[in-house]
């Protein structure tokens, strides 16, 4: 038995990548084969993920299946939010306006800067000694 998905999108934040499969249903959110309440214990992460659904008024209309890799839990939550926003924006142009105004369609590209060779960090330099 094959499942037909309405939408498949990718969301990113820092080093996290979330692949989202969206289909019509009762509003179940499954992240890495676990229910969202089991995967995320913090209410702020759950709020972050459900933000695009609440803004567009689509809570309980779609089942979401998410595969997310990389980064930490907060970065993954941001990647999932980005993927949900992109999927909803592709489905309905009215949703796009609302999500764009809220800033949810912009990828958060802030990453850790690379460490420079011969230095202790990205910006940090060794202490200067005159003599």
Mean pLDDT value: 92
Strand order across the largest sheet: 1-2-5-3-4
Structural class: alpha+beta
The level 1 CATH classification is: Alpha Beta
Radius of gyration over all CA atoms, rounded: 19 Å
CATH architecture heading:
2-Layer Sandwich
**Largest sheet features:** 5 strands, mixed
Helix-strand sequence: EEEEHHEHH
Strand and helix layout:
Layout lengths: L6 E7 L2 E9 L4 E3 L2 E2 H4 L3 H14 L5 E8 L3 H19 L1 H10 L29
Parallel strand pairs: 3-5
Antiparallel strand pairs: 1-2, 2-5, 3-4
Helix pairs in contact: 2-3, 3-4
What's the short story on this structure?
This protein is of the alpha+beta class and 131 residues long. It has helices at 36-39, 43-56, 73-91, 93-102, and strands at residues 7-13, 16-24, 29-31, 34-35, 62-69.
Detailed description of the structure:
The chain is α+β, with helices and mostly antiparallel strands and 131 residues long. It has a single domain (7-102), classed as Ribosomal Protein S5, domain 2, CATH 3.30.230.10. Helices cover 36% and strands 22% of the residues. The protein contains 4 helices and 5 strands; from the N terminus they run ββββααβαα. The chain has helices at 36-39, 43-56, 73-91, 93-102, and strands at 7-13, 16-24, 29-31, 34-35, 62-69. The protein has a 5-stranded mixed β-sheet with strand order 1-2-5-3-4. Helix 2 runs parallel beside helix 3 and helix 3 packs antiparallel against helix 4 (93-102). 27% of the residues are buried.
